[in-house]
Every structure is written in C-alpha cells, then in structure tokens.
C-alpha cells in the first residue's frame, strides 16, 4: 500500500517552516499532498490561487509532492484521496496541546488515519504565518521567511 500523507493547513502564507516539514518527511512517504483548507468562514490574506501557485513553484522539481484544496474535515478529505497519514509540524507546547486533541478527533472520524509529527527545525521555530502577514501588511520585507519571493 502506498504511504500517502496529507499536510493540511491554511498556509496563509506557506513559509520556510512548512517547506522544512515537507522536505524532511519526503523519505517517510511515497506521496505528500499539501492540502489548503478552503474554510470560507476565514478570510484569507493571500488569495488561495496565488498561494497554490507559489507552493507548486516551490515543489516543481519534487514529483512526490502535490497541492490540493479541500473543504470540510481533514479526516474526510484524507479518506477521499486514500491518504492514511496526516503530517503536522510541532513548534512548541502550545502546538502540542492543540495537535493532541485534533489528532485524536481525526482518528475517531477515520480510524485508519495516523498523525505523524515532525519537530520544527530550531532555526525555523519562530516563523508563523500570522507574523509574516503582519509584517507584509505594514510594508516589511518577508522574503527571507518564505521559500519563494513575493
Ligand atoms: P493551521 O491553519 O492549521 O494552523 P498552518 O498553515 O498555520 O495551519 O500550519 C500547518 C502546519 O504547519 C501545522 O502543523 C503547524 O504546526 C505547522 N507549522 C507552521 N509553522 C511551522 C514552522 N515554523 N515550523 C514547523 N511547523 C510549522
């Protein structure tokens, strides 16, 4: 059976931290699907289409990585594409508290689904999408936090 992992997130924007998780997980899986949650209740800062293009550009040379949008529950989306793993990054204990309950809920919804966590690389642990958006909004340079240029 193919080992397919979904990395779900808002990716608003996709950062060097996200890229690092994908690259480090490549030896573990046959395919990694970067799944952008299309949660209409949440207004995006970077448009979905734009971010989809930038993520594609980032992994253009990596055939194991693909990008998809999804609506609704991650567990249902994973089932629909035959993925048996969810991939998430952990930066700190706050991430852990949140991810702990989410991963248990996901396994309740889809018992075949395991969540695999990679601990963030220390040099990237301070990068968060919220901060990137804030800097960008007020005209600061964010390219060194991203794997592509804006
Ligand atoms: P969400 O909207 O679900 O919080 P994000 O787009 O912020 O999603 O992040 C998706 C995943 O990437 C989460 O598992 C998050 O912990 C992880 N992540 C975000 N930033 C980093 C980082 N700097 N290093 C490692 N993992 C990260």
Keywords, please?
150 residues, alpha/beta, Rossmann fold, 21% strand, binds adenosine-5'-diphosphate
Task: Explain the overall architecture.
This protein has 150 residues and is of the alpha/beta class. The chain has a single domain (4-145), classed as Rossmann fold, CATH 3.40.50.620. It is built from five helices and five strands. The chain has helices at 16-25, 48-58, 74-80, 93-109, 129-137, and strands spanning 4-9, 31-37, 65-70, 85-90, 114-119. A five-stranded parallel sheet has the order 3-2-1-4-5, sandwiched between helices. The longest helix has 17 residues, at 93-109. It is globular, with a radius of gyration of 15 Å. The N and C termini lie far apart (38 Å). The mean pLDDT is 96. Bound molecules: adenosine-5'-diphosphate. Adenosine-5'-diphosphate (ADP) is lined by residues 9-11, 15, 17-18, 21, 88-89, 91, 95, 120, 124-125, 127-129.
Quick overview of this protein structure:
The chain has 150 residues and is α/β, with parallel strands linked by helices. The protein has helices spanning 16-25, 48-58, 74-80, 93-109, 129-137; strands at residues 4-9, 31-37, 65-70, 85-90, 114-119.
């Amino acid at each position: 059976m193919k080992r397919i992992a979904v990395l779900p997130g808002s990716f608003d924007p996709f950062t060097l931290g996200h890229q690092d998780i994908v690259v480090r997980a490549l030896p573990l899986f046959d395919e990694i699907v970067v799944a952008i949650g299309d949660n209409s209740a949440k207004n995006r800062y970077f448009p979905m289409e734009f971010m989809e293009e930038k993520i594609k550009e980032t992994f253009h040379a990596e055939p194991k990585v693909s990008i998809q949008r999804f609506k609704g529950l991650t567990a249902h989306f994973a089932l629909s594409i035959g993925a048996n793993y969810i991939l998430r990054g952990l930066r700190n204990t706050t991430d852990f508290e949140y991810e702990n309950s989410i991963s248990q809920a996901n396994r309740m919804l889809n018992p075949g689904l395991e969540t695999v966590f990679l601990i963030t690389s220390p040099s990237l642990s301070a990068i968060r999408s919220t901060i990137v958006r804030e800097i960008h909004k007020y005209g600061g340079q964010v390219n060194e936090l991203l794997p592509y240029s804006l």
